[in-house]
Amino acid sequence: MGSRVHQTMIPYTPSMASPNTTLKLLIDKKTQKVLFAEATKEFVDFLFHIFSLPLGSLIQILGSKQMVGCLGELKESVDSFNQTYLQPGIDKDVIFNPEIAFNGNMFLLLNDAFADDKPATSKTLYRCSFTSRSGYYALDGGYVKDVVTYMVMDNLVVKPMSTISTITLINNFVVNDLSQLEEKTLTFGKDEALKLLKASLMTDQVLTTLLRRDD
Question: Which domain of life is it from (predicted)?
């Protein structure tokens, strides 16, 4: 269990968001579909961090109009709910923005997507008591190692990348003519993060959807 560092606070501002990262997309020119992407640690950390987002925060990030089903309507009803009927000490902002741990730079980029118009907030740093390292995991820990390049499939399945795995994957796609493949570099920043989140709730061809919306 992490031990709390004595009131060490970092004010969060949009300028703390990490620089954009890049994805190298391998595309089938004939179908205009993404076969896979070569991704960095920052992008994979971002994907993994999605699972730690509370549902309320996810709706807040995407906007209720972008949600499939009735969650958007539920969110709007809470927005208009009379404060009188809430328990003492409960604020609507707590419902949609509960305190959550943050890991890695891509989380800050994601946070920036809905923090532009909000005042700076503070984060308490925690240090793991089971490690001899004195660094604070909240700053640059993330989820995956930095020494590995990762392969991300169109449906966001993540695998370590190697020459063998790349050749095997291309064979699995039955690509007879390598000239029909092209590589495209996609800059992944705040806007792309929002597009990816939306696409991941609607399709299993997320990277292809991201590419088409970028064109």
Answer: Eukaryota
Alpha helices in 8-147 (DSSP H): 41-49, 55-62, 71-79, 92-96, 105-112, 137-140
| Both tokens assigned to 144 | 């995956």
Terminal Cα-to-Cα distance of the chain (whole angstroms): 46
**Could you tell me the residue ranges of all domains in the chain?**
2-53+100-214
Model confidence pLDDT, tens digit, residues 34-86: 999 999 988 998 888 887 777 777 777 777 776 666 767 778 888 888 877 77
Instruction: Please enumerate in sequence order all residues whose Cβ is within 8 A of that of 194, keeping only pairs 6 or more positions apart, or say none.
Output: 61, 62, 113
Residue 172 burial (C-beta neighbours within 10 Å; 0-12, 13-18, 19+): exposed
Give the Cα separation of 95 and 85 in Å (integer): 14
Contact 59, 75 (CB under 8 A): yes
